[in-house]
């Protein structure tokens, strides 16, 4: 019942490719079992998608040196499982509706710093795009499978 009444949170996500077309993922500090995700987050009041993506990317990874390769058309959504409703985002949302970007990392790996501001990740790595659906939490798997199609279309 609660789920249907809650709105979706507006957010952004970013697919960071290195020069081998591997994808950046971080291990979340609130879910340190072997679950990883790409940087993502909410949009602040008055922010456009690109500004929000750059801010979230910097806050979560320290990365600033990127080239935006593509803003993916449309939006992608995921809903929280029942056990997280009322807990995540102070209970204000049932899930997230996100605008995603594909970017190329232009910096060197010393730029990557997970300890900026309020850290969300405790570890990071580059993985093959095909590994994404295997490392994500179950409730985001469908979204990641759709994003994987976008990545593969872009790379190929």
Helix-strand layout with pairing:
Elements: H1 2-5, E1 8-17, E2 23-28, E3 36-37, E4 40-42, H2 49-61, E5 66-71, E6 76-79, E7 95-105, E8 121-127, H3 132-135, H4 141-155
Brief descriptors of the model:
156 residues; alpha+beta; Nucleoside Triphosphate Pyrophosphohydrolase; 4 helices; 8 strands; 23% helix
Walk me through this protein's architecture.
This protein is an alpha+beta fold. It has one domain: Nucleoside Triphosphate Pyrophosphohydrolase, CATH 3.90.79.10. Strands 1, 4, 5, 6 and 7 form a five-stranded mixed β-sheet that branches. The longest helix is centred in the last third of the chain and has 15 residues.
Short summary of the structure?
The protein is of the alpha+beta class and 156 residues long. It has helices at residues 2-5, 49-61, 132-135, 141-155, and strands at 8-17, 23-28, 36-37, 40-42, 66-71, 76-79, 95-105, 121-127.
- Overall form: globular
Cα gyration radius (Å): 15 Å
Number of strands: 8
CATH class: Alpha Beta
């Amino acid at each position: 019942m609660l789920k249907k009444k809650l709105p979706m949170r507006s957010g952004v996500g970013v697919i960071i490719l290195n020069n081998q077309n591997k994808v950046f993922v971080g291990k979340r500090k609130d879910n340190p079992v072997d679950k990883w995700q790409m940087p993502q987050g909410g949009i602040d009041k008055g922010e456009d998608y690109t500004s929000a993506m750059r801010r979230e990317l910097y806050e979560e990874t320290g990365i600033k040196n990127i080239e935006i390769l593509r803003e993916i058309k449309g939006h992608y959504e995921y809903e929280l499982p029942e056990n997280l409703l009322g807990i995540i985002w102070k209970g204000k949302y049932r899930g997230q509706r996100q605008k995603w970007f594909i970017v190329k990392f232009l910096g060197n790996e010393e730029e990557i710093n997970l300890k900026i501001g309020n850290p969300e990740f405790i570890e990071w790595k580059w993985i093959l795009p095909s590994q994404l659906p295997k490392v994500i939490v179950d409730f985001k798997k469908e979204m990641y499978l759709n994003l994987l199609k976008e990545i593969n279309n872009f790379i190929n």
